[in-house]
Amino acid sequence: MEQIAVLFLKASVFGLITVTIAYHLFKHLGKKWIEVKFSERLEAYKSAQMRELEELKYKINTQFSRISKIHEKEFETLPEAWSKMQIAVGHISKITNLFQQYPNLDKMTPPELETFLSESKLLEYQKEDLKKSTNKLECYKKMIFWHDLGEAQKTVGDFHNFIALNKIFLSTDLQKNFSKVDDAVWASLAEMRLTEQEAGNKMW
């Protein structure tokens, strides 16, 4: 009976030891498994965050690059627009100037008149008509006006087309100001043409 009790005691102790070892082993392995899983999920989260960060960086760089190119184009466009505007306004100022000076063609000798006409913008038939005119100065003023008006219209058209094609690269304020100048020079051209035509009709 005592032997059975001893055996039972030994078995109980062995079982307790086994359970204890199993518990500690499970506890240790379970902790490792949890740590591994947590580490895997952490790495996956970090990887996803990095991908999202890279995508955001790419979007920001793309937008910045686009904006930089637009501003770069504005810096290229603005001086050209300003130059074309000054040329157009200069031509308008020339033909609208009431105090333009002309050489007195009526007092020129025939050789002087020939030299002057050879360097002028008049067409050949206009030169012949002018030579026959009894008031050469007034005839020249009327003829040269339409040449100057044509040149002015060309420069104004060049300015207008440049602004129309490149206004996307200009700020809103610059677009408005250039458009105001564009409208003003076109209006001046139209008024000068109409005034000259009415004067010609009245004379006829």
Q: How helical, in percent, are the residues?
A: over 70%
Report the order of strands and helices.
Answer: HHHHH
Mean pLDDT: 76
Please report the number of helical segments: 5
Descriptors:
rod-shaped; mainly alpha; single chain; 204 residues
What secondary-structure arrangement, pairings included, does this model have?
Blueprint: H1 2-96, H2 110-118, H3 124-132, H4 136-166, H5 172-203
Helix pairs in contact: 1-4, 1-5, 3-4, 4-5
Structure summary:
The chain is mostly helical and 204 residues long. It has helices spanning 2-96, 110-118, 124-132, 136-166, 172-203.
Structural commentary:
- It is a single chain.
- This protein is mostly helical and 204 residues long.
- It is built from five helices and no strands.
- The chain has helices at 2-96, 110-118, 124-132, 136-166, 172-203.
- The protein is rod-shaped, with a radius of gyration of 46 Å.
